[in-house]
Design goal:
It is a single chain. The chain is an alpha/beta fold. It has a domain of about 130 residues: 3-Layer(aba) Sandwich (Rossmann fold), CATH 3.40.50.300. The protein has seven helices and twelve strands. The chain has a six-stranded parallel beta sheet, sandwiched between helices. The C terminus is likely disordered.
């Protein structure tokens, strides 16, 4: 992913990385923080105490990437530990409440680079505060996408697989999975398409199938005698010539091909 270019010296800014679970938000946060460390910048990293799924003293991604961090109870604790820091990283920002927004603003005004990663939607698909407010004031925004576990499409929603009350329920793959918009709306009715199954059909074919169903005939067959119906082999058989000469039956008209044979009364009969 592209990384923002450094503005003028002593100018701070805010970067926000948002997406669903399993979309690589924490991996991107760790990548940027490691690059800052390689550049010999002073870095401070924070995570909410609520997130203790993998480790208390490390930020850990679902792919087992990790970096040492400091655990905090509230966003204001960042101000006490960030005096000497040039770069500040915060993971799971949605758990730190609305006070995270003014804290990030204050740090950016002090000339610091602030990087925050978090969920932009909750398990119901609603905006997860305070991330929408951070998106509004951030200079740089990165939206990450996961893969829908049902159909394989790009996923930007987090689906809670079990019924548990409360907006904040910390968990991993036993509770949550990434889904696309369609499979998220279907909920427990979402099913993976079978191998070789055609998911979409052309609109004109759907309309033709509907017309055939109303007419009570299988698709692909034309109505007998209808417009554009193929001529049967019998219609191509020459009309018998009763008493006429072969010359009359094969009479041609210049430029118009073979003329249709004219019937004449048989010899001995009156017309």
């Amino acid at each position: 992913m592209s990384e923002p270019a450094h503005p003028l010296p002593s100018t701070g800014w805010i970067e926000v990385i948002v997406g669903s679970m399993y979309s690589g938000k924490t991996e991107e946060l760790i990548r940027r923080l490691r690059r800052a460390q390689i550049a010999r910048q002073r870095v401070e990293i924070f995570k909410p105490r609520l997130d203790d799924r993998y480790a208390r003293d490390h930020i850990v991604s679902h792919s087992e990437l990790r970096i040492p961090s400091r655990t905090i109870r509230s966003a204001r604790e960042v101000l006490r530990h960030a005096h000497e820091a040039q770069v500040i990283g915060i993971d799971e920002g949605q758990f730190l409440g609305p006070e995270l927004v003014p804290v990030c603003e204050k740090l950016a005004r002090q000339g610091k680079r602030v990087i925050v990663a978090g969920l932009d939607q909750d398990y119901k698909g609603r905006p997860f505060e305070p991330m929408p407010q951070l998106l509004a004031i951030a200079e740089y925004i990165t939206k990450t996408l996961a893969i829908c576990v049902v159909c394989g499409a790009p996923a930007n929603r987090t689906y809670r697989k079990v019924k548990r009350g409360g907006r904040v329920v910390v968990g991993g793959s036993e509770l949550y999975e990434a889904r696309c918009r369609r499979c998220f709306d279907l909920g427990p009715r979402a099913r993976a398409p079978e191998p070789g199954m055609t998911v979409t059909r052309r609109p004109e074919r759907l309309a033709a199938a509907s017309r055939h169903a109303r007419a009570g005939r299988p698709p692909g067959r034309r109505r007998a005698g209808g417009r554009g119906a193929p001529r049967s082999p019998a219609s191509a058989t020459p009309t018998p010539n009763h008493g006429g000469s072969a010359r009359d039956a094969s009479k041609t008209v210049p430029g118009r091909g073979v003329a249709r044979g004219r019937l004449r009364p048989a010899s001995g009969l009156r017309a």
